[in-house]
Design a protein that fits this description.
By secondary structure, this protein is mainly alpha-helical. It has one domain. It contains two helices and no strands.
């Protein structure tokens, strides 16, 4: 067997053996993204409460803050769906 063919076979085996490690790495990265989104949601909910307590009330600011919260919650739900689809 030629040396180049042996090297290719070796590369394939190494790549194959790294697959579980890479999968675990990506799972942890996805979980970190979910944690960041959780933090972002909490901060944005705080902004909603601040906007509600202002005088005079700026209704557009409240609406925009609520929209930001809901969009971030939707992103979090989609990340959870992706995690479930790819890793469970």
């Amino acid at each position: 067997m030629k040396y180049t063919k042996l090297l290719k076979m070796c590369k394939e085996k190494i790549t194959e053996s790294l697959a579980p490690l890479r999968s675990h790495e990506m799972l942890k990265k996805a979980e970190l993204e979910v944690a960041k989104l959780d933090s972002d949601i909490a901060c944005k909910e705080n902004l909603v409460n601040e906007a509600k307590s202002e005088y005079p009330i700026d209704f557009d600011k409240i609406i925009n803050a609520i929209d930001d919260v809901e969009l971030t919650k939707l992103k979090r739900e989609r990340m959870e769906d992706i995690i479930a689809d790819l890793f469970e």
